[in-house]
Write a structure and sequence with these properties.
Elements lengths: L10 H34 L7 E6 L2 H14 L14 E7 L2 H14 L1 E7 H5 L9 E7 L9 H4 L2 E7 H15 L7 H30 L21 H11 L7 H13 L5 H7 L6 H6 L8 H12 L1 H10 L8 H12 L3
Parallel strand pairs: 2-5
Antiparallel strand pairs: 1-2, 3-4, 4-5
Helix pairs in contact: 1-2, 6-7, 12-13, 13-14
């Protein structure tokens, strides 16, 4: 009947649902582990970011407490424990705020996204600076590599920066864990510290943008098709060669210099030597791997092509010239090599 009051369910209802979850929690733990490994592997493939992925399946006690709390707030809303949105929780921590958008684009590319919320817009809490991030509810696509549970049970993904992650953990420790409100003077001190963290991140973001915009300008004229620059490879010659070969964004001077070190380790010291190793045009598998990614640059395209045409020599060069910014690079290259080979 319209307007009829819904009687609250008994505490035993929440307990029974929590016990039902307990019997299946091992399945949720396995799905969480698989999802974290899947997402970490995909994000390691993106050279422009550094991301650390962690996750957890909700504890049984927390499930029961949340069911009881939601029953008090909205009687009769949840029919089972599976209606809770955060049984599988995953956190992605990146360096700067600009990298959050790259992770978001990858989530939309890989998964079914039921929710995509900017936490700042969602909270509207100007009095608590320091936290910036995006929250997603995602599910696996049919026919993929993820456990079947994730086809129907959404995972909650929080993407935040390192400073925001630090701020969130400190807020929990200093403001809430003790159970007592901070005195006014300490509360102002806390907000000041959070503001300083936010300011530091903004300044680092500005420095990053300056670095990208200040990279040396290359000649707008790429070599004519089939013409290979003479002489030894330098950053400018490599940039021109790659720009003529790949439909991708230009690479930074740092990434061009790093690739030059790898090529020299492979004894590919000239444009002619590199051109002789590569086929006349990029393999379609190279283009397929990066299709739809706006962040792919020309060095990444060459990275994949060298894995395809000279995998052993390229892996050996990477062991000699490691990427200090990505300690997992060899593992990532081996995984990409298997994908290129169809394995």
């Amino acid at each position: 009947m319209p307007g009829e009051l819904i009687a609250p369910r008994s505490r035993s209802w929440a307990h029974r649902e929590a016990q039902a979850y307990r019997r299946r929690r091992r399945e949720y733990v396995a799905a969480t582990t698989a999802f974290v490994a899947f997402l970490q592997a995909k994000l390691e493939d993106i050279d422009e970011i550094e991301a650390f992925v962690s996750g957890r399946a909700k504890e049984v006690r927390s499930v029961e407490q949340k069911l009881r709390a939601r029953e008090r707030a909205e009687p009769g809303r949840d029919q089972s424990f599976a209606d809770l949105p955060d049984l599988i929780g995953v956190r992605v921590v990146v360096r700067l705020e600009s990298e959050i958008a790259i992770v978001a684009a990858e989530l939309h590319r890989l998964l079914v996204v039921d929710k995509d919320a900017d936490v700042r817009d969602e909270r509207g809490r100007e009095e608590t600076p320091g936290y910036r991030g995006r929250h997603f509810d995602v599910r696996a696509r049919a026919g993929g590599d993820l456990p079947d549970l994730l086809l129907t049970q959404p995972a909650e993904v929080q993407v935040r920066t390192r400073t925001a992650d630090l701020w969130a953990s400190l807020e929990h420790e200093l403001r809430y864990k003790g159970g007592d409100a901070l005195p006014p003077a300490r509360s102002r001190q806390f907000v000041l510290a959070a503001s300083l963290l936010e300011l530091a991140e903004r300044e680092l973001e500005d420095l990053r943008a300056w670095q990208l915009n200040a990279r040396p300008a290359r000649s707008a004229a790429a070599p004519a098709g089939g013409v290979v620059p003479a002489g030894p490879l330098d950053e400018s010659a490599l940039a021109d060669l790659l720009a003529a070969r790949y439909p991708a964004a230009p690479s930074t001077a740092r990434r061009l210099g790093w690739m030059l070190e790898l090529l020299r380790e492979m004894r590919l010291d000239s444009a002619a030597a590199l051109a002789a190793l590569l086929p006349s045009s990029p393999d379609p598998r190279i283009l397929a791997l990066v299709e739809g990614r706006a962040t792919v640059d020309t060095v990444r395209m060459l990275d994949d092509e060298l894995l395809l045409v000279a995998p052993e020599a390229y892996l050996r060069a990477n062991r000699v010239v490691p990427d200090e910014r990505n300690p997992h690079r060899i593992r990532t290259l081996q995984r990409r090599q298997r994908r290129l080979a169809g394995g």
